[in-house]
Each structure stands twice: as structure tokens, then as C-alpha cells.
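Worked Example 4.2. Consider the chain below.
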Amino acid sequence: MNPNNITLSASTLKTLTYISYSGCGVSLFFLGVVLFMYIVLWKQKSDHSAAIHRSLCSALFLLNLTFLLNEWLASYNKDGLCQFIAALMHYSLLCTFTWFGIEAFHLYLLMIKVVNTYIKHYRKMLSLVGWGIPAVPVILSASFNKYGKYSISTELKSVSM
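Applying the procedure from the previous section yields the following C-alpha cells:
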């Protein structure tokens, strides 16, 4: 995923940056609206689907937030901060994939296995899988020093993330 020795034109980098930031910004805004609505309209007896949707929206919100803050935090030239934001972005991306898989599993249980699908401590197990399993590769990557600063070069300057 690391494109070595590729130099983009300044206009291409600027265009790609605007597209990325506007898409992530709109997505972050509406994910915030959805999470706010889940919090405001939350009921004590919410079903498992609502809890899974909240977690999926939270993981997506965290992913978009880390992507938007990435370049700004990299501008501080602190190695620890770069490693932290890279690990957090990696973790939120893996959480997003995991929660999508949990969503698919839950839909399978709802649509195919309609009868006799009671699972003891279902939400706790889903939360442990959705938020816990993605931490394993992130911790392993961090222990092998795989996170750090990355630069995209143009003819005039380079952008760090």
C-alpha cells in the first residue's frame, strides 16, 4: 500500500486532497447526526440491531475523524503522535470492517436462523469481538514499529501523514 517513487503533480494532489476532505467531512457530519440521534432517542430496551448500528457508526466516525486529523497532526513532526494517529486509524479501520462483519452475521441470524437463536450475553460478546479483535493486529504492528510518518511528494513540496 506504500507507493514508492511516485511523484504527483501539485494540482492532482490538491484535487485529491479536496475530494478526500470534503467526502470525509460530509460523512463525519452525518455520522455525528446519526450518533446524536441514537443517543437522544435511545431507549433502555433497545434491540441488538440498534446496538450494532451504534457501534458501526461509532467505528466509522472514528475512522473519518482520524483521517481528517491525520495531516494536521503530522505537521507537528512528533514521532509518537504520528505513531499514535496511525495506530488509531488502523484500529478504527479494522473495527469498521469487523462491525460490518458482525452486522452481516446478525442479519444472517435474523433472516435465516429465525427460530431458536438465543445467545447468552450476545451484546457483550459482539462488543468484545467488534472492539477487541481489531486491537490484536494493531498491538502487534505497534510492537514491531510499523507505524510512522509517510510523505507524498509533488514537484513543489511534500505532504506528510
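The chain has a mean pLDDT of 85. The first strand starts at residue 7 and ends at 8. Compare this with Example 4.1 before moving on.
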